[in-house]
Amino acid sequence: MTSLDKGMLCFVYPVLVNYSDAYHLQRRLLRSRLEGQIANTLLLMEHSPTITIGKFGKLENVLASPVQLEAEGISLVFTDRGGDVTYHGPGQLIGYPIIDLRERARDIHKYIHDLEEVIIRVLGSFSIGAGRDRRHAGVWVKDEAVAAIGLKIKRGVSMHGFALNVNPNLAHFSLIKPCGLTDNKATSICRLLDRDVPMGAVIERLLAYFSEVFDTEIKLAPGLDSVRSCL
Amino acid sequence: MYPSELKYSTEHTWLKLEGDNKGRVGITYHHQNQLKQVVFVELPEIGTEVTQMEPFGVIESSKATNDLYSPAGGTVVEVNHSLEAKPGLVNHDPYGEGWMIVIDLSNPDELDSLMSAEEYIALITQ
Hints:
Shape of chain A: globular
Radius of gyration of chain B: 13 Å
Largest interface: A-B, 23 and 16 residues
Number of domains of chain A: 1
Order of helices and strands of chain A: EHEEHEEEHEEEEEHHEH
Number of strands of chain A: 12
Strand content of chain B: 25-35%
CATH architecture of chain B: Beta Barrel
Oligomer: heterodimer
CATH class of chain A: Alpha Beta
């Protein structure tokens, strides 16, 4: 750990979190982090079914009509992260690190590389060989996307983050053109292993590798033990 | 890489004072180098009021959006629309063709709080 690093506080949410609620929480945490009131923070959660469109994303990359989305119970949200269109839903692990990159040379590319590294190591621990695509942030297994990344950096502090497919409804991905890329297929840990993998197991490994790759101590927010039994 | 006639902000934007109380604004070599390939730039419309050290637009590279911070306050009088089709100009020529907006400065005294090239270099070399 660098002398500046006071470690990271992690909140794991046991129930589905509404995308917009999580967004507003991130904004508040980011402001506190900028003012040095809190340490780096990591939010881990799952969202109710939501399609999000990034700051410069294109609505035409949402292939389903508003009627179809409503029938499926999927919300549509315009957000301010980088990247195009993506899907979030139960079974997908969402990670929102609020990290002060000013303590890490404001190197966004290294940050993205490190997030990808964490996910690659998590997948490796399940014997899944995953890698990067030089042209696009994210994590792939062969030509199928298993994790998406999209960020916003505000005065050097990051928000938004990653979405790792553990066991989401993959059919929902056909309602969009993920990341605006044609022929971008999505996959998940459970699909790749052809067996059920509990979210809690993924979270445990994610925390371990996050700590390792980011060289930071991660403290779980009080109450995690009771939360973990819900996972 | 850091022209001495420009003034610099801590959020890596530069300002060039031009005739008739105008300031031309863009991002520095350091900032475009950190961002690497710029894929989108959102700029304000002519007539928009901007405030010193407040966001005036958004820039995206590698799936990360970043706010663009105005080095001075005033009214936007010119916008570089070339950046819509050619965001790469920001990387290729950050002080020339990659310029972003021109502001009619509301308070030229604000420029005193900006950095010289030497101070900016010191900031980014820390």
